[in-house]
Design brief:
The protein is built from six helices and no strands. The chain is mainly alpha-helical. It starts with a helix and ends in a 7-residue tail after the last helix.
């Protein structure tokens, strides 16, 4: 985390070094707040519009658009050289999440055979949870690695 803070949030890192409390309680940065909340605000705004877009253009088209938007955001975040790129990438990630989280359950419910409809819908949510758990376990396991991941 230190290399990331050093590159994108040096002021936050300096404040953390001067703090006498836990370093997670001293972040007071509007840029860091914008970075963190940009994904969630974009996802919220998109999810409010996604139902109308899905009805107009179709579930599969919205899933593809959401996936492409998410891929573009991940690519920008992966190659980010400054904070503006990070925020733009997270906004695109939020757009992708907002579109796909609205369109995919509908698509699964409509395309699944009646016998398996509940399993498909529940499976979607289950595997989202598995993905979040896996990502957190990877973050926990790699947090102390010296090579900076």
């Amino acid at each position: 985390m230190v290399p990331f803070l050093k590159k994108f949030f040096p002021l936050v890192l300096r404040k953390a070094a001067e703090a006498k409390t836990n370093m997670y309680c001293v972040y007071d940065s509007q840029v860091l707040t914008a970075f963190t909340s940009s994904l969630y605000i974009a996802g919220l705004a998109t999810s409010l519009l996604a139902s109308r877009l899905t009805a107009a253009f179709g579930r599969r088209n919205m899933m593809v658009l959401g996936g492409c938007t998410f891929l573009a955001g991940a690519t920008i975040n992966g190659g980010a050289a400054n904070i503006a790129m990070l925020i733009i990438g997270r906004i695109l990630l939020g757009f992708g999440v907002g579109l796909t989280n609205q369109a995919t359950p509908l698509y699964l419910s409509e395309m699944a055979p009646p016998k398996w409809r509940g399993a498909f819908s529940t499976g979607f949510e289950f595997f989202l949870g598995v993905g979040v758990l896996t990502a957190n376990c990877i973050n926990y396991g790699t947090a102390k690695m010296s090579w900076g991941w």
